[in-house]
Structure formats: structure tokens, C-alpha cells
């Protein structure tokens, strides 16, 4: 099983542990990753110049197509951006013609054969729950986890086709196979506030705090994220903005949680980079 890995822009700079743990877990599960010279997914300019956004995303899709590969990305923002571009290109033939004319300068062409998949989707559908469960060596027993989906993979459902946008279950099922218990919590589908950070810090922190409090009310030991924005918000921003006497709610990336249960070392999963440590991980 081969995929072109799309790490995006934020992960290599701000969240190296996400790529590190994703690579380690996929290698253990016999998923081969191919590195291509991808550019930005286009998301940062989507609201400023629509065609530039589409071109940026389409170039990545065309590069993967050229190698007969589908794309896997751990970043939900990149996943959402590439899926939106794919949707608009398939819907608008004149847009497709215009973008392909630009791509021809690099001998590229977008046909629409490349599939874009998020890391969780590949683990759930392609690798499979049953297959992963057979390879669990050190279950995360006794750990209660609040699975936080993030926004970009769920909505709009007709474009992303990730899971039921109102009642998703993929993430909880993937957490449970690691031996941890995925708790039911009220704000699991709400925004973490990450996209607002450094734009409206007060609102960003308020949204985050409400999610942290909700996870705490559900007696979770930690959050688990599979979104770049969410993990930066829950780990880096929460740690830096810690209010005196506030109890930190740690957050672990899903491939880190899964990797530990597969017997992969904490170092190889980049856990030393996590700002807030998880004391209840029995297999560390």
C-alpha cells in the first residue's frame, strides 16, 4: 500500500512530532510513504484569491497523479483544502481548463484520478480496525481519552466524505483499539479556537477553555487530536497561556497514542516535543 505523504506547511515547522509519529506508525503497519515536492495546499489564500487557491491545490493533486499515487495527509486543514479544490474542479469545467493550462507549464495535468485521504481514514478503512487490533502489543489501559475531531474533516460532509458530520464515530473507534477508553463529551465537535489565535486571542482562548472544561467534566485524562491546529492550540498555546492554579489538560496526537500501543518508542513518536506531559500513560 503506497501513498504520497502531504505534510503541509505547519507540521514540518510547528509540529514535527506529528509527521514523525505518523511516519513511524504507518511504517509499522506496512504503509509505504512516497515524498513528492508538494507546495502549500492553498488554504491561506482561499478567501483572497480563489483561482490561486485552486491552482496551488491542483498542482499537488497533479503531482500525485503523475506518479499514480493517492495522497495521505495528517493535517485536517490540508485535507479539507485539497478536497474542496477537487470538488470545485470537478464541478466547473471552465475552471478545470484554466487551471490545467497553468499546470501545463510544468508538464502537469489534473485529470481527477488522485484521491485525498486523511490519516484517520487510511487507518480506519484501508489498514482496517481488525488488522491494527492484531498488532497491539501494549494497550493504553486505564486511560480515558476525549477525541477531538477538529472542524476541517467533518464539514461540509458532501465535499469531505470523511464521516457523518453530526455523529462521527471513526476517531472513537480508533482510540478504543489502542486499549484506551474514548469518553463521550459535550463539545467534541466544536472548534478549538486555533484559527483565531493571533487574530482574536480572547475569543480563541475562550473557545479552547470551554473544550478543555468539557473534556474535564467527562473525566478524561487527556485530549487526543488528529488536527494540526487543534494540537498546537491544546498543547503549545495552552501551555504558554497557563493561568495560575489552572490544571493543564494534556493532548496527545493520535499516531502517538497508537504508536505507543504498537510498541514504538516514545522517542520515535516525538513525545519529548509535547509541551504538556501525560502522566497516566501506563506504557511509557
Report on the structure:
By secondary structure, this protein is of the alpha/beta class. The chain has helices at residues 10-14, 16-28, 50-66, 76-91, 93-103, 119-134, 157-160, 170-176, 201-217, 228-240, 254-261; strands at 2-5, 32-34, 71-73, 116-118, 144-148, 181-182, 222-225, 251-253. The protein has two domains: 2-118, Glutathione S-transferase Yfyf (Class Pi), Chain A, domain 2 (Up-down Bundle); 137-273, Rossmann fold, CATH 3.40.50. The protein is built from eleven helices and eight strands. The longest helix has 17 residues, at 50-66.
Comma- or semicolon-separated keywords:
alpha/beta; 10% strand; 284 residues; four-stranded parallel β-sheet; Glutathione S-transferase Yfyf (Class Pi), Chain A, domain 2; Rossmann fold
Amino acid at each position: 500500500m503506497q501513498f504520497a505523504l502531504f505534510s503541509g506547511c505547519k507540521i514540518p515547522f510547528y509540529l514535527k512530532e506529528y509527521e514523525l509519529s505518523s511516519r513511524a506508525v504507518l511504517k509499522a503497519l506496512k504503509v509505504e510513504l512516497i515524498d513528492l515536492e508538494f507546495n502549500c495546499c492553498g488554504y491561506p489564500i482561499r478567501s483572497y484569491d480563489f483561482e490561486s487557491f485552486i491552482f496551488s491545490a491542483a498542482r499537488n493533486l497533479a503531482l500525485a497523479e503523475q506518479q499514480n499515487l493517492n495522497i495521505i495527509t495528517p493535517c485536517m486543514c490540508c485535507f479539507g483544502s485539497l478536497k474542496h479544490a477537487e470538488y470545485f474542479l470537478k464541478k466547473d469545467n471552465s475552471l478545470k481548463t484554466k487551471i490545467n493550462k497553468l499546470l501545463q507549464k510544468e508538464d502537469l495535468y489534473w485529470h481527477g484520478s488522485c484521491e485525498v485521504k486523511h490519516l484517520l481514514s487510511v487507518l480506519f478503512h484501508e489498514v482496517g480496525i481488525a488488522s491494527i487490533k492484531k498488532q497491539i502489543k501494549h494497550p493504553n489501559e486505564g486511560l480515558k481519552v476525549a477525541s477531538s475531531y477538529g472542524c476541517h474533516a467533518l464539514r461540509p460532509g458532501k465535499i469531505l466524505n470523511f464521516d457523518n458530520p453530526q455523529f462521527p464515530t471513526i476517531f472513537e473507534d480508533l482510540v478504543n483499539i489502542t486499549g484506551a477508553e474514548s469518553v463521550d463529551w459535550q463539545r467534541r465537535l466544536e472548534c478549538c479556537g486555533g484559527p483565531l489565535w493571533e487574530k482574536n486571542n480572547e475569543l480563541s482562548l475562550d473557545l479552547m477553555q470551554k473544550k478543555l472544561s468539557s473534556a474535564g467534566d467527562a473525566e478524561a485524562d487527556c485530549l487526543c487530536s488528529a488536527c494540526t491546529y487543534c494540537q498546537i492550540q491544546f498543547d503549545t498555546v495552552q501551555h504558554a497561556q497557563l493561568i495560575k492554579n489552572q490544571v493543564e489538560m494534556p493532548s496527545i496526537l493520535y499516531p502517538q497514542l497508537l504508536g505507543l500501543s504498537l510498541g514504538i518508542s516514545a522517542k520515535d513518536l516525538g513525545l519529548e516535543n509535547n509541551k504538556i506531559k501525560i502522566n497516566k500513560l501506563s506504557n511509557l
